[in-house]
Amino acid sequence: MEDRLGAFVPGAIIHRAPRGAGPLTDLSFAAKDLFDVAGLVTGCGNPDWANTHEPAEADAWAVDALLSAGAALRGKTVTDEISLGLLGINKFYGTPRNPRAPDRVPGGSSSGSASAVAGGLVDIALGTDSGGSVRIPASFCGLYGLRPTHGCIPIAGMMTQAPSFDTVGYFADDAATFARAGSVLLREQIIDALPDEIVVASDCFALADEPVGYALLPALERLRRIIRVTEARLAEGDLTQWSRHQRGLQRSEFHATFRDWIDRVNPRFSAEVAGAFADDGRISESDIAAAQAFRASATQRLDRLLDGRRMLCLPTSPILPIARDARLSEMRLAVHRIVDLTCIAGLTGCPQVNLPMATIGAVPVGLSLIGWRGGDAALIGAACAIARDLSIGVPQEPR
Amino acid sequence: MEDRLGAFVPGAIIHRAPRGAGPLTDLSFAAKDLFDVAGLVTGCGNPDWANTHEPAEADAWAVDALLSAGAALRGKTVTDEISLGLLGINKFYGTPRNPRAPDRVPGGSSSGSASAVAGGLVDIALGTDSGGSVRIPASFCGLYGLRPTHGCIPIAGMMTQAPSFDTVGYFADDAATFARAGSVLLREQIIDALPDEIVVASDCFALADEPVGYALLPALERLRRIIRVTEARLAEGDLTQWSRHQRGLQRSEFHATFRDWIDRVNPRFSAEVAGAFADDGRISESDIAAAQAFRASATQRLDRLLDGRRMLCLPTSPILPIARDARLSEMRLAVHRIVDLTCIAGLTGCPQVNLPMATIGAVPVGLSLIGWRGGDAALIGAACAIARDLSIGVPQEPR
């Protein structure tokens, strides 16, 4: 396999055969370099992390699950440094190409996984999603991508970042493959079935740039033809309150995760990632308590909206993928805006799926559905039914 | 030449012959990688700086001055990234060895220059000193080192950092070589002569760790035998006010220097250096005005103390060189404390010389003299007279 996309960590293209036959026989997969693969160092996108850690002794649960289901592992993919980033930029290993928008970022932090799937190098790729790290590259690269219910797919052998937000997610380029892999990772049958109702979150759409909202209008129109579609505001007040609290909590958790390592190693980071550690990440107990209370009430609010097997519909990202050569200030603004929408599943623990239902020119624009907690299989089933009924991304033959 | 110390930038050991004979004939020198050498990229200790800059077209003034005076250039030395650092730690090119305290840092940012001179690889090395970058490695490596009067040695072809603080300095291992090079760089004759009076700054000594102050006591005793030594407080109030204002001003200036490049390039930094950019470096006009006013009054205060060709005596560093494997938090604390003393010459523009007059075990402890503005030649002459009268570092034959 030639990695013309820079999707794989240099030297980490491998071939590990499946552990027998299973539902994923004849499929290949890659794993973000946050997942342990026995015998390899889990490098986490940063050379100083790689330098200061030993090779993994065992495969991560998700890697083992896919190998055991018959898929072959083809390597480990580039990630934003220590999983902090939503654009897919990596100054040490290079920024993977976005095959569908070559001048733009692929999205991150599961950048190489999305790039490898979108470029046809593998059928499935594992990612992680704490603040949007599967959903955003799925949106930017035009893929199906799942952030599951928090706690639903075992994270054993995956590097944690912010434990109350961390999830194992994955990508596929067509709905059928998406469902096959989902069934294995969720250990549930996936049944193609449209949801009873889709609730369009008007305040989420209001945060999107005009071209993004405009590009998604035809997709909403098509959904209206096959599903009951209603509209509601997600937030009682200002939706950007959600991301404010999410940032505080996630920051506090990832600082706790990395603080001692940074102090011990004085690692190298790009200025982008170093900015995440500009302060010491400690927030006051009263701020934590306020954010936790907000999280609880936001979760109740979303639970009520989704009651009755409804799914919430929103743009995955309020912005298009930015240029690969964007300035740091533009990168920071982009990340800030993205989190305004990705925080919703993060705060509430609900699953979210990206549907590659629109483009502007060739640039993908993702539409998201958020399901109820534990409704991951129904969410994937809805993605399949929508793809079938609207003839999106006709399933491909296994490569 | 074998660079067993890691003092030179990889690939930047060269041999450039002198431009004819002169006062430095038979001496060799190295230049910190902040000085232009025609045909080479001035890398400034950071690979992303090197990647984004073209080779220099001409030699820096100081490089040209030494070549023209008969010295041979042997290469470019490692510096703390973009000259920000006082410990000599560089995560990209490696931390040069301190030949006199191998388990400790060499001091920085002119780390490789000090290492190369202390290790006998060259006779003279150019450094730069904005916040202490010659004085500290001179102290930590046991060398003579000059931070000149601000503006006194031309900075043409040297990368600037904080223009109102930036100076060209240099190192030598013995007083005679120190004087020979000083005469060339200052374009003045150096006459060995003791100062009329040395004023021991009691509040500077009070900031030093006990072992540092204790180690310097015998040196002060020896000076008392040959010079009139008095004692005074430098500051009217709390001496640490000096460094507070110096940090604000220097920070504001180096942010202005690097802001656009960082925004454009998203460069990689060690966490230590990234911390310097944790905020945007903008300080309010009122804070700048207050710092400028403080700077003016501090300068007047020092001018009065030095009136009558007196020299101020203080520890170069309040602490010993820290361990090479120190934690980031310990590194930050060390830098903070060092600046409490190095800020004095920085704020006032006065010249300062490090005298290698003490050790603890084998670890060097530097004593400093600060002279009046423009009194650089007298300061070097005092260093020579002290070395002669106290038989310090018997001058060596040219290598």
Model description:
Two copies of one chain form a homodimer. Chain A has one domain (8-240, 281-389): Amidase signature (AS) enzymes, CATH 3.90.1300. Chain A is built from twelve helices and twelve strands. The first copy, chain A, has helices at residues 47-51, 61-68, 111-118, 135-141, 175-186, 202-206, 210-226, 240-265, 271-274, 285-306, 328-348, 376-389; strands at 8-16, 28-32, 72-77, 124-128, 144-147, 168-172, 197-201, 228-232, 268-270, 310-315, 352-360, 363-370. In chain A, strands 1-3-2-4-6-5-11-12-10-7-8 form an eleven-stranded mixed beta sheet, with helices on both faces. In chain A, β11 (352-360) and β12 form a beta hairpin. The longest helix of chain A is centred in the middle third of the chain and has 26 residues, at 240-265. The interface between A and B is medium-sized, with 24 and 24 residues.
